[in-house]
Structures are given as structure tokens and as C-alpha cells.
Specification:
Chorismate lyase, 5 helices, two-stranded parallel sheet, 8 strands, alpha+beta
Length: 168
Amino acid sequence: MKRTNLERALGRRILRDVERLTSFTEDITRAGYVPGAKTLALRVVRHARACRQQRVLFLHRLRFAGAVPVCVERTYLPVRSARFIERRDLQGSLYRMLEARGERLARSEEFLTASAATAAERRLLKVPSGVPLVRISRLAFDRAGRSLEYAENALRADRYGFRFALER
């Protein structure tokens, strides 16, 4: 994809195109970085909003662009779709793992906000107090309309750019 003048002006940020559903791994790779992950927690929990289920698999990861921590992910998956994850390497793309099991994400609803990093997020992302984060809450569905993922991601605003192509 050819870089636009706006993208060049933003510098080497991780560009997230909000016109399509992409994974963290896809965004990081497209930006020219090597994606990475550190698993912070993996357990079954109760969560009313997550995937419209009561019991879900909670996956908490710190995500990297090269050696730089850029995202704190909190992902909730239906237990029926995620049982295999406990036995798999969680360094790679969760979407690829789901797709390998026949679970295809077709669409998502996302909500973006901005706020200061919490103390825990500052420690994980290695940023000073007052640094803004972009927060994305996402509910992703398969082609049949079943929820496959609920995610709450906190992204470093100094490392990310978002591209919206709007028409009137």
C-alpha cells in the first residue's frame, strides 16, 4: 500500500485502518515491525459483556512492536471457541489461531476513546505519568452473527495513527 502525505507526516507510526477488521499482528507487520507478545494472564472468568457468555476465557497480553511495548490487550473468548488456546503458543496472532480452528471473524463493532494510562499500564508500557492512551473496545462476530471476541485494548497514542476514509 502506498503511503499518503498524511502518513508520511505522522512518521513511523503503527497505522490502523479502521475500514477493515485487522489483527494486531497484521497492523504491526504492515508497519514494518516484528510483532511480539507476553502473556500476563490466561484463565476462565465470568464476564457479562464478553461474547454474550457468562463463562469466558480471559487472555491478558502485553503486545510489542519490535522490542517496544505498544498495547495492553484484554481479550475475552467464548470457552467453546477457545479451549485449544491454553495448549498453544500465545506469542502469535490470536485471529490466525481462531481461523486455523475454523472460527472466521467477519465483522466487528468498535468504540474508541482516549484517557491517561493507569499506573499498571504505565509500568507495562514503560511510559511516564499523564501519557495518553487510545482505548478500543471491540466485539467481533463470525458470519453467522455469533460473538467470537470481546476485547479491551489500550494503545500508546504516541505510537499509533488511525486512518479514516470518509465520504459525504
